[in-house]
TrEMBL record:
Its main location: membrane. It is a multi-pass membrane protein. Residues 331-457 form the Threonine/Serine exporter ThrE domain. Residues 546-555 have a biased composition (Basic and acidic residues). One of its GO terms (molecular function) is transmembrane transporter activity. The chain crosses the membrane at residues 174-207, 219-243, 249-272, 284-306, 326-345, 352-371, 377-396, 403-421, 441-461. This is Threonine/serine exporter family protein. It comes from Pseudoclavibacter terrae. The keyword DNA repair does not apply. InterPro entries: ThrE-like_N (IPR010619), ThrE_2 (IPR024528), ThrE_Dicarb/AminoAcid_Exp (IPR050539). Belongs to the ThrE exporter (TC 2.A.79) family. GO terms for cellular component: plasma membrane. It is found in: Cell membrane. Residues 530-555 are annotated as: Disordered.
Amino acid sequence: MRGKNFFDNLARKVGGKTPSTTVGRRAQRALLAERSIREVLELAVRVGETMLALGASATDVTDAIRRTTKAFGVDCQIDLTFTSILVVHDGVNDGAGISLLRVVNSRLPDYDRLTRVMELSREIAADPNDIDVAETIDDPAKLEEALNQLESFHQRLDEILVAPQRFRRSMVTLWLALMAGGVGFLLGGGPLVCLLSAATTVVVDLVLQALGRWGLPAFFLQIAGAAIATGVAVGLLAALPVLPVEFAALPPALVVASGLVVLLAGMSFVGAADDAINGFPITAMGRLLEVVLLTLGLIVGIAIVLDVARGLGIDLRLVERSVQPWPSAVQVIGAAIAAAAWALASYATMRTALVVMIFGGIAYLGYDVLVTAGTEPLVATAVPALIIGILGEGLSRKLHIPATITTVCGTVPLLPGLAIYQGMLDITSSDTSDDGVLRLVQAGSIGIGIAGGVTLGRFLARQFRTRRRRRTATPEAMVMSKRQFRGTASAGPETRALYMIPDEVAVGLETGMLRIVSVDEVVDAGQADVGAAAPPAPPHPNVALKRGDLNARGE
């Protein structure tokens, strides 16, 4: 031991120190830039992944990712598909690019979390204390401050994701039962129809939960759900001769239709059309393929039960409405209940459910007025969907409710559950299937009308909001965006003093995708002679306009 300690001490005494001249080390600027950019992209991708999994459209997800990266001065390219998100930064100064990929494994609507995540993305974009990544390259202190900001946003996102869901799963089953009862009133059914529809939906949901725990694919879950709902209707047809009720008081078709609307509500008709129209064809095809498969699952489930019933000799009859349907006011209330119940079943807040209730009532009221006037079903559903799209997008900022929630839930009363059952019943019970095929085509056209109307309404509302913002913005507020301000602020004092940047720019005003911030600290008064005339400002890529370049209308 003594010999070993002797040689250890000798080695320390004769050993050299760290070289004063470093060789082959990585450039500090590249290290700092890559670290800060990667952290920004990580936050943006997490926000986008969460929104896509919770039911947001591709347009909303892309906008949220771009808002988050631009808040820190990072340009990126975004590739979004139905199951994955790829965000790429090309790199600066011949540096290597940075890319992050996230795969979305599950998509379950949770509108409470979705609302909170979208609010967080807007807060990130509106935070005046965000640090531009360009400022962190040569300043480790700025880098540390930026990383602390990003970490705080990560923690807030973590809090949203790990928070308990708003309702227990058993409460979701009750909300779905309430939705089925509301659809029963909507279709003109009486109290017995509503109670039986609610009870059937409870059974369907409990069975689907059990099958889902086995890992059964959604296609077979849809078959099972439709088969149970249709089986209840067939059982009613077989038992009606011995029941103390008339056929018209308990039409089985309405029971099946109520259950089908509950199963149809989870499909992304609106999302598929929105993605296709807004330039996301791959995502739209993925959503559309999912919708087609799930709808085929319903049709297969109905067909299997009806074919078995026909083989057993059960008389399959169809009554579209009750003998004494409810007044339109009662049906509007049923539509409002169905829309609000679906929002609650998707974990929305009570406040959101109240707003959705109003939207659902408006949608069905418009449908009823158009049908009474003799309008075709396609137009009678597309026009109310257009109105819901305009209202949902136009009021989303004021109500702090994403338009995705109000449009998807508000159009639930327009879903063609009864038309699908009627079509399958005609195909199964008739010698010719022409009428049934036409009914199924009509149901598909109604779904397309709903999706197209909502998408067009949202587009019109966004265009109107953009034009109104441009008209009402002050000339000073239109001079400089957040990104343009940062580019000038990172220049030298002489450059900053040379450009005429107004100090009246409003804080937090949004113009398109970029936010206006205060630029009081940009012009360094100590670097310029107040009495001297400022030289003419040359064109600069970071400054859009100078004071005096805008007239009173901001043009």
